[in-house]
Design a protein that fits this description.
Strand content: 25-35%
CATH architecture of the domain at 54-156: Sandwich
Largest sheet: 4 strands, antiparallel
Shape: elongated
Number of strands: 7
Radius of gyration: 33 Å
Structural class: alpha+beta
CATH topology of the domain at 54-156: Immunoglobulin-like
Number of helices: 2
Helix content: 10-25%
CATH class of the domain at 54-156: Mainly Beta
Strand order of the largest sheet: 3-2-5-6
Distance between the termini: 77 Å
Length: 170
């Protein structure tokens, strides 16, 4: 039997089947590669951070002379004459919070800190990136002398305690 381009000989049938199967597998893998690439592009695009920038502010409050860390210091953050955040230091005198770039006027923030048994502290900082500062307070005359006065100070400063949610939110 003679083989023509349109009709292969009987002995060439296995080679033809292998050739066709190879092309099918090759084309399937090629299509799979395109689909996988497309899906990865969608996933990568979905993981872009939001356009709104947040600055991380990391403060450590310490008493200037004794070098004691000051737990329970009340912090108010102002920008453009408006209070934009409040926080309280933990047992190690550390306060970490985030500020939205849109809330900051002229890239400046003003900190007001009421430390336990310490003089009132106020200072202005320029904020162009994350801020990490050690704040040195001095023991002195204050109306915040006892940790049990924290609720009274919150009331005086018109601060609402932050709500913390544990577990899942319904």
């Amino acid at each position: 039997m003679l083989a023509t381009p349109d009709c292969p000989a009987d002995n060439q049938a296995p080679q033809l089947a292998q050739f066709l199967y190879g092309n099918v597998v090759h084309n399937s893998m090629k299509n799979f590669s395109y689909i996988l690439f497309f899906l990865l592009c969608i996933q990568v695009n979905g993981q872009n951070p939001p356009d709104r920038k947040q600055f991380k502010v990391d403060l450590l409050t310490i008493e200037k002379k004794s070098k004691d860390t000051l737990a329970g210091s009340i912090i108010e953050i102002y920008s453009g004459g408006k209070r934009i955040e409040t926080d309280i230091t933990d047992f190690d005198g550390i306060s970490i919070f985030y500020l939205n770039e849109s809330d900051i006027v002229d890239k400046k923030i003003r900190l007001k800190i009421y430390g336990l048994k310490c003089k009132f502290y106020e200072s202005t900082f320029s904020i162009k990136e994350d801020l990490k500062k050690t704040i040195y307070l001095q023991y002195g005359q204050t109306e915040y002398n006892d940790p049990h006065q924290i609720h009274k100070m919150y009331e005086k400063l018109n601060i609402k305690p932050k709500e913390f949610h544990c577990g899942t939110i319904d």
